[in-house]
Amino acid sequence: MSESEAATPKQWVLEPENEYRFELEAGSSCAITLVRGRAEIFGAEMVEGKPYVFGSECKAAIFTWLGCAIEISLI
């Protein structure tokens, strides 16, 4: 992946009762922002517009009961 591709945020739309799972390799990190809707990380509700930063070797999932859109940026 080129440096410009890594810097370009990607947006994902999750349908109700779905989740987005991700796993980061050593030395990588990403920021995930809730663009619209409602979602949670390990049961904690996400705040719309706030970037959540995840670091090296993280494994997590974002779940939505009602549907949402998230934006992911590799940093």
For the largest sheet, list the strands in their spatial order.
1-8-3-6
Oligomer: single chain
Helical percent range?
under 10%
Q: Please describe the biggest sheet, giving its number of strands, its sense, and whether it closes into a barrel.
A: 4 strands, antiparallel
The chain-level mean pLDDT equals 92
Termini separation: 13 Å
Find the structural class using helix and strand composition.
mainly beta
Strand content: over 45%
Q: Shape, please? A: globular
Radius of gyration: 12 Å
Topology pattern, helix = H, strand = E:
HEEEEEEEE
What's the count of strands? 8
List the helices and strands and how they pair.
Blueprint: H1 3-7, E1 10-14, E2 18-23, E3 30-37, E4 40-41, E5 44-45, E6 51-54, E7 59-64, E8 68-74
Antiparallel strand pairs: 1-8, 2-7, 3-6, 3-8, 4-5, 4-7
